[in-house]
Specification:
Layout lengths: L2 H24 L9 H10 L1 H5 L4 H19 L5 E7 L6 E6 L9 E4 L6 E3 L3 H21 L2
The structure holds zinc ion (ZN).
Length: 146
């Protein structure tokens, strides 16, 4: 395990243990074992109670930050995949592959069915018009159906 991964893992354990400690203390319960699965299970069991707690916002912020850190360490050059809808040229689905600026490949929109249906960043406006056009056509066809 990389030092960064070990560090974020330790931070996760510390934060979960702290919140589990709060639950255990305020609800007069036995705190769980200090390992991540046990802590996570314990917190999930008390999630409704936690959602009503005055510090719920703080808990959410801390978990969100930990998740973001852990994800960026686990997938350092991650490509974000955003599903966009139906391909205007076939039955496939369009997915935008948004790559970091320093990636050697450019961001692009690809079709899940046909590898020839790809659109580079420079053509996204044209593609958006095409999608809008095919959606309008689709809705007209639906109107005509019995
Ligand atoms: Zn396609």
């Amino acid at each position: 395990m990389s030092p960064a991964a070990a560090e974020v893992r330790s931070a996760i354990r510390t934060v979960l243990a702290s919140w589990a400690g709060l639950v255990a203390e305020e609800r007069h319960l036995e705190p769980p074992a200090r390992d991540i699965p046990a802590l996570a299970r314990f917190l999930c069991q008390h999630v409704k109670w936690l959602a009503r707690h005055p510090a719920a916002g703080e808990l959410v912020d801390e978990i969100r930050e930990l998740t973001r850190n852990a994800r960026s360490i686990a997938y350092p050059n991650s490509v974000r995949r955003v599903t966009l809808g139906c391909c205007p040229d076939c039955e496939g689905e369009l997915v935008a592959l948004i790559r970091p600026r320093d990636d050697f490949l450019p961001s692009e929109i690809v079709c899940t069915t046909s590898p020839s249906h790809t659109w580079p960043v420079t053509c996204w406006t044209t593609l958006a018009r095409q999608i809008r056009g095919s959606q309008a056509q689709g809705s007209k066809e639906k109107v005509l159906e019995p």
